[in-house]
Amino acid sequence: MLDERNNKNTYAFLLGTAIGAAVGAITALLFAPKSGKELRHDIAEKSSEIYGKAADYCVTTGEKVGTAVKNTYNQGMDKAQQYVNSTKEQATNLMNKAGEAYNSVKNQATIVKDAAKEGYNTFKNEVKNAQDA
Fold first, then answer.
1. I want to staple 38 with a disulfide (CB 3.0 to 4.6 A). Which of 34, 52, 68, 74 is the partner?
2. Burial 93-108 (b: 16+ CB within 10 A, else e)
3. Rounded CA gap, 113 and 26, in Å?
4. What span, in angstroms and rounded, lies between the C-alpha atoms of 43 and 51?
């Protein structure tokens, strides 16, 4: 039992040492000083990568915005055309009603004129007959 516990402790110690060594090695590589040329290369590479991602994002966003603007424009044009068509239809209906009203008034005026003329002729004939009698 004591040997088993010692084996576990030894295993844990060796595992901890291996993990610590790996973390230390990675940290050393990440923080190791680089020459100016290497540092400039790394910065240029990272900048190029970031620029590429930003450019892709801008293109994608531009396409989305362009599509949204086009859709909005088309919807606006459709709505405007609907208003134009509706206005034309209402104007046509109004003109038709105005024409009907004009014709009705014209017919009524003709009837009144004819009735007045007939009444005048009747009155004239009665006056003439009264003079002749």
1. 34
2. eeeeeeeeeeeeeeee
3. 113
4. 12
The pLDDT of residue 80 is above 90: yes
**In 3-state terms, the chain is what percent helix, strand and coil (to 5)?**
95, 0, 5
For 24-40, write each residue's pLDDT tens digit: 766 655 676 766 577 56
CA angle 95, 100, 102 (to 5 degrees): 90
What is the predicted pLDDT for the residue at 111?
93
Tokens of 121: 């002729």
Q: How far out from the chain centre does Cα 80 lie?
A: 14
